[in-house]
Write a structure and sequence with these properties.
It holds the Pfam family Rhodanese. This is Rhodanese domain-containing protein. The protein is of the alpha/beta class and about 160 residues long. The chain has one domain: Rhodanese-like domain (Oxidized Rhodanese, domain 1). The chain is about 30% helix and about 15% strand. The chain is built from 7 helices and 7 strands. The chain has a 5-stranded parallel β-sheet. The chain has a two-stranded antiparallel ribbon with strand order 4-5. It starts with a helix and ends with a helix.
Length: about 160
């Protein structure tokens, strides 16, 4: 007796394998980022998936920021549930995107999610921002602002001081 049609379908159609994340070192990423292209979609853009607080300490010139995770008030990390949607508002699925974070782990996870959502040209930047800085590549660092100083209040003379 032949198996039911459902069993035949499940055996003959394997589950799609997840796309393998391509990781490039920071020197390759820097070269890709600088290559001029006639077609804007062929230009490699840099997406930084660190937190806003991490970005504020320094980042790559012309990078965009969509945090992959947020730090909760309890100090734990929580995945940004709107990450793919937010990236899709900035990029089309056929644009070339270099994905970086602090060390390369969050960006790798971000690449997996973006590939699953149909983004075809994403590369993980291995070593992340730490490796970028260690290799002497250019970054934008915040300009330190001096602390605001206020003059101490001028003491108001008391009536007794006027008498002397």
């Amino acid at each position: 007796m032949a198996p039911p049609p459902e069993e035949i379908r499940s055996e003959s159609v394997p589950a799609p394998a997840p796309a393998e994340v391509v990781t490039v070192d920071v020197l390759t990423a820097s070269e890709l980022k600088q290559q001029p292209q006639e077609d804007e979609k062929q230009v490699w853009k840099y997406l930084d998936v660190r937190t806003e607080e991490e970005m504020a300490k320094g980042h790559l010139h012309n990078s965009l920021n969509v945090p992959y995770m947020f730090v909760t008030p309890q100090g734990t990390r929580e995945k940004n549930r709107l990450f793919v949607e937010q990236v899709a508002s900035l990029f089309t699925t056929d644009q070339h995107i270099l994905i970086g974070c602090q060390s390369g782990k969050r960006s790798e996870l971000a690449c997996v999610d973006l590939q699953a959502a149909g983004f075809m040209n994403v590369k993980n930047v291995g070593g992340g921002y730490i490796a970028w800085v260690q290799n002497g590549l250019p970054v934008v660092e915040p300009v330190p602002t001096p602390p605001t100083t206020t003059a101490p209040p001028t003491p108001t003379p008391t009536p007794a001081e006027f008498a002397t």
